[in-house]
Amino acid sequence: MKHTNHADYAVRVLLYLRVAADRRGSIGDIASAHRISRNHLDKVVQRMVAAGLVQTSRGRGGGVRMVRDPATITLGDVMRAMEDDFAVVECLGPARFCRVAGVCGARSVFAEALDSYFAVLDAATVDDLAANDVGLRGALGLMTRTDAS
């Protein structure tokens, strides 16, 4: 299963915010740190706002910030908010044109695999993903004086 860039970028936004000073940043700074398109990131952040993962504000001291504590945001929350389709096979989706749908065992196996996949994602929080916060700050160009010493 491959996720869209929207899901990937949403995780990157949350990682950036988790390690940034005051846990906030501008879309431009986040896009620059990750070397991704600002225009694309604008759309991702809009979707994240609608999902209740982040909020935005304008003006001095504005930008993007997490709405919830990063210890409570799971990777499963992010994937469900950013992806529209988890039907890894047709029979898990709304339209079923497979001739053997309902008479083969594939649907239950793939449904169980998807449940297991989300069990793993639901166990991992943004804090877990950012456990190496000093390394992340370095990779994103956000080093502080305390990190350098």
Spell out the key features of this protein.
single chain, 149 residues, mainly alpha, Arc Repressor Mutant, subunit A, three-stranded antiparallel sheet, 8 helices, 52% helix
Q: Would you give the CATH topology?
A: Arc Repressor Mutant, subunit A
Report helical residue fraction: 40-55%
The computed structural class is mainly alpha
Q: What is the tally of beta strands?
A: 3
CATH class: Mainly Alpha
CATH superfamily: Winged helix-like DNA-binding domain superfamily/Winged helix DNA-binding domain
> Approximately how much beta-strand content do the residues carry?
5-15%
How are the strands of the largest sheet arranged? 1-3-2
The shape, in one word, is elongated
| CATH second-level architecture | Orthogonal Bundle
Summed up, the helix count is 8
Largest beta-sheet characterization: 3 strands, antiparallel
* Overall number of domains: 1
Mean of residue pLDDT?
89
- Give the oligomeric state of the chains in this entry, treating copies of one chain as homo and distinct chains as hetero: single chain
Terminus-to-terminus distance? 41 Å
What is the string of SSEs from the N terminus onward? HEHHEEHHHHH
What's this, in brief?
By secondary structure, this protein is mainly alpha-helical.
List the helices and strands and how they pair.
Elements: H1 5-19, E1 24-25, H2 27-34, H3 38-50, E2 54-57, E3 63-66, H4 75-82, H5 106-123, H6 126-129, H7 133-139, H8 145-148
Antiparallel strand pairs: 1-3, 2-3
Helix pairs in contact: 1-3, 1-4, 1-7, 2-3, 4-5
